[in-house]
Give the backbone structure.
Amino acid sequence: MSINKLVVLGLAVFFSACSSDMFLTHNGNMPSNERIAQLKIGDTKQQVVQTLGAPSSVVSFDQNTWIYMSSSIRRVAFMEPEEVNRDVLTIEFDRDGKVKDIERLTKANGTEIAVNTDATKAQGHEPGFFEKYFGGVGGYSPFPVIDPRNPQ
């Protein structure tokens, strides 16, 4: 058997073994459509919690926006994960704590957001080479240091 045939056979075995490693994970907890249909403008926060349960998230800058969400992600071997399904329900409350707006988005009508990979430099002391790699030498003590004048 030639070397080329061995390489092709090896690659075929490798890719056929990896192709069966598919995992589908579900994240979040979206209430059923029947429960969502029970919501109406003017419901209180307490009524929403009784109908749908606690939200997946509350917007940190605006405590009057609740988010219920779920998604399904497919992972195949070493390939990049792919989002198969996304369902987001946002509920906005007015100042009196009553439902003002209900909006539902899916993967089809949602927007893909590009993740920014830029790093933000932290303010403060920037350690040099020796401090960074040798600054902790001698600072570790596996046993507590006991003061003989004040044993506890």
Remarks:
- The beta strands are 22-28, 57-58, 65-76, 82-93, 99-106.
- The domain at 18-110 is CATH 3.30.1450.10 (Beta-lactamase Inhibitory Protein; Chain:B, domain 1).
- The chain has four helices and five strands.
